[in-house]
Amino acid sequence: MSTIQANAASDYATVVRERHSVRHYDPSAKISESEIVEILKEASLAPSSSNTQTWRFLVVNDDATKRKLHPIANNQQQVLDASATIIVLGDLEGYKEIGRINEDAVRKGYMPEDFAKQFTENSLKLYSGLTPEKMKSIVHKDGGLVSMLVMLSAKARGYDTVPMGGYNEQKLIEAFRIPENLVPIMLISIGKAAVPGRLTARLPIEDIVSWNELK
Ligand SMILES: Cc1cc2nc3c(=O)[nH]c(=O)nc-3n(C[C@H](O)[C@H](O)[C@H](O)COP(=O)(O)O)c2cc1C
After folding, report:
1. CA-to-CA separations, 189 to 39, 92, 98, in angstroms, rounded
2. Best label site of 102, 155, 189, 209, fewest CB within 10 Å?
3. Percent of the chain whose pLDDT exceeds 70
4. pLDDT score, position 176
5. What's the angle, vertex CA 191, arms to CA 202 and CA 15, rounded to 5?
6. How far is the CA of 202 from the centre of ligand 1 (A)?
7. Which atom of ligand 1 sits closest to the CA of residue 78?
8. What digits encode the pLDDT tens for the residues 188-205?
9. H helix intervals, the chain
10. pTM of the full predicted structure?
11. What is the DSSP letter of 62?
12. Atom nearest to 22 CA in ligand 1
């Protein structure tokens, strides 16, 4: 069983070591929308390309919508039993928010005004000239980073998660009327474990690390 209790201040190493993908949830355990917002707010502290924060979240937490998502997510039981499933999306046009983000940074005293103006101008020029493939690659990186923080932030609060790539992307887009600018990154179910996640093995570190040139 997890040694992490809800609302306990948990140290980073414990959170990382005790996060496991959980596929069996207590259907009676509900996470409030305000707590999910807190988790997403904390996760949004993730780094992103030029701080464009291209992630968007569609949270599925009502029973009818869970039933709609279930067959699309290969009938994975966690979609029905977890408190919520977060559809993580990447916005291919998200870079257009860069001006608003930088103006906010100026107001907060994080960035000088002339630097912000130049940064915004350069970024808009750069991102608007990228191919859709390149933009997709960027939002997938941003989306992966934020997704990891969603899972760690949830664990630090005593909740469990499982990331899912097992879903029908076309059906997801149709069923949730996801517009063309939003790319599905992954689903993350979040709730209280009914059965702890299985332990999983990792490759030996020396097999995955090279120094200065690849082995
Ligand atoms: C991109 C991605 C897609 C995944 N898709 C699924 C999935 O569809 N269903 C599932 O049960 N687990 C899924 N997983 C969870 C992995 O199986 C799990 O992370 C891996 O076995 C390591 O276990 P751990 O998360 O407990 O450390 C996915 C993980 C990732 C990162």
Report:
1. 13, 24, 30
2. 209
3. 95
4. 98
5. 45
6. 13
7. 11
8. 999 999 999 999 999 999
9. 12-18, 33-43, 63-72, 78-81, 98-107, 113-128, 132-156, 169-175, 205-208
10. 0.95
11. S
12. 26
